[in-house]
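Example record for the data management plan.
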Amino acid sequence: ATEIQTVYKGLTNPGTPLSIYDESLAPAWLNWSWDISSDLANTAAVLSGGKSIALTYNAAWAGFKLHTATPLSTSGFSTLRFRARGGANSSLLLGININESSYSYFVTAYADQWVQLDVPLATFGNPATINDIFWQNKSGTAQPTFYLDQIELVP
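Corresponding structural encoding:
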């Protein structure tokens, strides 16, 4: 596997992470995406294990949305952590959002390189629960395939 670079530095995370995606979606989580092609069992570009999520934004402002009908408590967690990889020769600007809040966090998935992205929940107004997590295309045009892996909440 390719070395992971942590983009947001300075966090210490003692404790056990809560997995949302690792080889598959955690129970109760669903793919509610729009204007994308998705493969949640991709084997072409994988960080660890045998599967990752492959996503292709087919339109401007398309979004990958994970939803759970059972609100997930954020008590004891401070950070949304995920790993992202841009496609071959392409980087991608993503907007991250939780629960359709007015807050958004922008990150870049770099071409052919896995990076670990730590987004503090404070960025989203410290929600007490999470029902939705979005990764939205902020480029304004359709985009080539990129990848996500190991999506989790960490203390």
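Summary line stored alongside the record: The radius of gyration is 14 Å.
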